[in-house]
Design a protein that fits this description.
The protein is mainly β. It is built from no helices and 17 strands.
Length: 214
């Protein structure tokens, strides 16, 4: 096939209510009996090469007065400069309201699964993605089936209810997964996240820590 743009190509697509054609592929006549496939990777975010502001303080992603144990922190000891290789997992009973840790726009909702288990269940994770004004986005995971309380394109404020916790995907107990990412090459990267843990304290979370939303 031939393409009307030089491949490989990197294309920034801005938000729009209308579909946008980004490339045309034309089969060559002598190969019309063949089967063709193409591949692309997509990232959400503002692709400007700038690193995000890591001083922003996030709200704990549940309602005021809700207590949770941090089952997994973002790093073994993030304050000592070790890499942020994974998100936070909060222990939460099923059907606990999950709230926006930061204001933004809901860009993706997956809520059709009711399955959980080992690594092979990773694709069965229900999730909600919220895009922030600075180009970062938060990924909330493990919602119950049909547990979303928002819709794609909805603007949410910090503290608004996004949905209800569950046990879907690669988990063996009810919980909530949370991480913040930004666009980078070759893959998105995690953002260190500070949380307001009470009326005066701001922390990087630790595994085993008990937290309550102020």
């Amino acid at each position: 096939m031939t393409s009307d743009i030089v491949l490989p190509a990197k294309i920034v697509v801005f938000p729009s209510q209308k579909p946008r054609v980004i490339a045309h592929f034309t089969p060559q006549e002598q190969y019309l009996t063949r089967t063709y496939k193409y591949w692309y990777d997509a990232q959400l975010g503002i692709c400007n090469g700038k690193k995000p502001d890591t001083t922003f303080v996030y709200r704990l992603p549940f309602q005021t007065g809700t207590t949770s144990i941090v089952l997994q922190a973002a790093a073994a000891d993030s304050t000592q400069g070790k890499p942020w290789s994974r998100g936070v997992i909060f222990g939460l009973p099923e059907n606990t309201p999950v709230c926006a840790a930061r204001a933004g726009i809901v860009t993706d909702i997956r809520q059709g699964s009711n399955k959980s288990g080992g690594r092979g269940r990773l694709p069965d994770t229900n999730m909600i993605v919220v895009f922030h004004d600075d180009g970062t986005y938060a990924v909330y995971t493990h919602f119950r089936q049909n547990g979303a309380a928002v819709y794609e394109g909805q603007r949410v404020n910090q503290g608004d209810v996004l949905g209800f916790s569950g046990k879907t995907g690669w988990v063996r107990q009810p919980c909530l997964g949370f991480n913040v990412q930004y666009s980078a090459q070759p893959h998105p990267r995690l953002v260190p996240t500070l949380f307001q843990t009470d009326n005066t304290q701001v922390h990087y979370l630790k595994t085993g820590q008990t937290v309550t939303t102020p």
